[in-house]
Specification:
By secondary structure, this protein is mostly helical. The protein is built from 41 helices and no strands.
Length: 663
């Protein structure tokens, strides 16, 4: 639809005749030479208000303009447009009718009227309006398309088909446009009309793959699967490179497990055109699906002979050899493939992985040495070599080998992030931070970079920097579950649990089955003693992973803190300890459950075992102090409480315990 408001700014006479004045020009009617200056001023003010988005202010100006000149279709049309954009379709329709009384063939008014009816879901009236529009401009393809689509919506299928035929007669020769009309029919289950549209297209454009797919879809909608298959076959007989058709036919054969029929059909296609690698590989796949591995290998071997410079042939055969666990044959195959074409990157990766599994480090490195100075693979090949050295355990050698690239290739973001990762893995966190900062100068769209950078700050005990990192990244990726999880984790470590919950909830919302996020959320609710919210979360993740040690431990601790179902808590704690008997936090949980059961000797036994593993845990030290206090050993109680407070100054509640002990 035209925007009359812009036209008004540049054509001083238009407001007298309305946007329909363009059609008056076609009919060679003279423009009015006189105008009302006050009305024109108001129209210009209203147009400017529209341009800056002040539609209500614009309306006021147009109403004032109409008071000075009530005979201008342009003024009323501008008012109608504003009411439409403000969602007041009924008022817009009333004003449009005023325009049409002044100018019955005003196309912009008619188009706006149809839009109002469509917005009110009154498709029948919208269709009637477009019939009038088509009468005024019978050869306008856009008008005919809207009329056709509305006729389909109101189920006037024969009229819609007639309108479509009018489009063809008026020069419509765009197959994509015609396919859209056919899809509208198909979507409305007007299958006969859809088929007529598609058959007309098929006769005119037999080279268009989409038409065969449309005809097959229509046949499927009729319940005639065999007819759909015949269209797929007819398409491949016309052009056996139709990839989507091949995929549809493959899906049908696999669904029905019609392996012999599939083998026979694709064999016949290959007899006509033996140079189609995709069909040859698919034929081998059908032999394999049938259970004829020998036949599949033969087909893939023939493909390699026919297409020695196509990587897919080797990869297909290698996948079968992998299933047979014949790694020596795979090694030989990949070696031969690289001799044919040294740029087969996936083959080289496969051979490298084979060497890494055998810990044949030198062979793996030798694969990439010839490429390390190749212009097209310079950085990637050196990354591969450095990664192999890291996997071998030669981290210093890997860093020394890769570090010079920071002087020559630092503008390639892969260089600083790779070196940063090596520094991170070797515990050189300040150097890693510098590399990650450099990478961010080059790329800010990598969520895994933000995560790695934040974790690196955590390793440096720079929680504020880590939190700032995650909050900054969330400005661009607000829904990323990983970024939200880590932001919440840092806030939890800072004991800002209420703030952490917001991030954990976002993470869990985006990944509803992510156990790590749900467990963290449940823990935050526990810290706030909102147990009614944490309990269902524990039950959910226990149902997802009932044998998980960490879930069983955390749920056991949750119950012990609440002092409920302690026998059940004991069962879950035992499951965790059976899996990891030397886990300090799990031992602490068991000790705390015994504390709640009143068995202080058993409680001390498990708590001290936990401290032997992690002697600087403020949680465990506080628990041990609580147990000694219950046993009446005030000296040991105060000793452990004080040490816990020294390690974590935020545990100010311990001061109350110390004060109570002194009393």
């Amino acid at each position: 639809m035209k925007n009359c408001l812009y036209i008004i700014l540049f054509t001083t006479a238009l407001w007298l005749t309305g946007c329909g004045s363009n059609h008056a020009l076609v009919k060679e009617k003279p423009l009015k030479a006189t105008y009302n200056q006050e009305a024109l001023d108001m129209v210009i003010d209203g147009t400017i208000a529209n341009l800056v988005g002040m539609n209500k202010e614009a309306l006021l100006k147009y109403h004032q303009a109409a008071e000075f000149d009530s005979s201008s279709p342009g003024i009323f049309l501008a008012m109608a447009e504003n009411y439409y954009y403000l969602g007041e379709e009924k008022t817009s329709i009333k004003i449009i009718n005023k325009v049409l009384n002044l100018d019955p063939e005003n196309l912009d008014a008619l188009i706006l009227l149809a839009a109002c009816y469509e917005k009110q879901n009154d498709y029948y009236r919208a269709m009637q309006v477009y019939k009038n529009i088509v009468k005024i401009e019978p050869g306008n393809l856009e008008h005919l398309y809207y009329l056709t689509s509305l006729q389909i919506v109101v189920k006037n299928y024969e009229q819609a088909l007639a309108s479509y035929q009018s489009m063809l007669q008026n020069g419509l020769d765009d197959p994509d446009f015609c396919l859209r009309i056919g899809y509208l029919f198909l979507q409305s289950r007007a299958l006969l009309q859809a088929e007529q549209v598609y058959m007309g297209l098929y006769k005119q454009y037999p080279e268009e793959e989409e038409i065969y797919l449309a005809l097959a879809a229509t046949a499927k909608a009729k319940g005639d699967t065999l007819k759909a298959i015949s269209w797929y076959k007819k398409a491949l007989e016309y052009d056996d490179n139709f990839g989507d058709i091949r995929a549809e036919l493959r899906t049908w054969y696999e669904k029905n497990q019609s392996w012999d029929e599939a083998i026979n059909y694709f064999s016949s296609l290959l007899q006509k055109n033996p140079d189609n690698l995709a069909n040859q590989l698919l034929l081998g796949n059908f032999y394999f699906e049938k259970g004829d591995t020998t036949g599949a290998i033969t087909v893939f071997q023939n493909a390699i002979k026919s297409f020695p410079l196509r990587e897919n042939s080797y990869l297909a055969l290698a996948s079968l050899l992998q299933m047979k666990k014949d790694t020596l044959a795979i090694e030989q195959l990949y070696t031969e493939a690289l001799q044919k074409n040294s740029m087969f990157s996936t083959v080289r990766q496969g051979l490298k992985n084979l060497y890494l599994q055998r810990q044949e480090w030198k062979k793996a490195v030798d694969l990439y040495l010839p490429l390390q100075d190749n212009d097209s693979t310079y950085v990637s090949s050196r990354i591969e070599i450095a990664n192999i050295l890291m996997a071998q355990g030669d981290s210093l050698e890997a860093i020394d080998y890769f570090k010079p690239l920071m002087d020559t290739q630092s503008d390639d973001w892969r260089v600083p992030i790779t070196l940063g990762r090596y520094y991170f893995l070797t515990g050189q966190h300040p150097l890693a931070a510098e590399c990650f900062d450099k990478t961010l100068e080059l790329r800010q769209d990598l969520t895994h970079l933000w995560i790695l950078r934040g974790i690196n700050y955590i390793q440096m005990d720079s929680l504020d920097l880590a939190l700032d990192n995650f909050k900054t990244s969330l400005q661009d990726f607000p829904d990323d579950p990983g970024l939200n999880y880590y932001a919440g984790s840092i806030l939890s470590r800072q004991r800002k649990f209420a703030q952490a919950i917001e991030y954990f909830e976002k993470s869990s919302e985006k990944e509803p089955d992510n156990i790590q996020s749900i467990l963290a959320l449940a823990g935050a609710f526990d810290e706030l003693k909102e147990f009614d919210k944490s309990e269902p979360l524990y039950l959910k993740i226990l149902s997802l992973s009932p044998e998980s040690p960490v879930i069983n431990n955390n749920y056991a601790y949750h119950l012990s803190v609440r002092g409920i179902n302690l026998e059940k808590a004991l069962e879950h704690s035992k499951i965790a300890l059976q899996a990891e008997p030397d886990n300090g936090p799990y031992l602490d949980t068991m000790g705390w459950i015994y504390y709640k059961l009143g068995d202080y000797d058993q409680a001390i036994h498990y708590i001290e075992k936990s401290l032997a593993i992690d002697k600087d845990s403020p949680d465990v030290l506080e628990h041990l102090g609580d147990i000694y206090y219950k046993k009446g050993d005030q000296l040991n109680a105060e000793k452990n409480w004080k040490k816990s407070l020294e390690l974590d100054g935020q545990r100010t509640h311990i001061l109350e315990k110390l004060g109570q002990s002194k009393k």
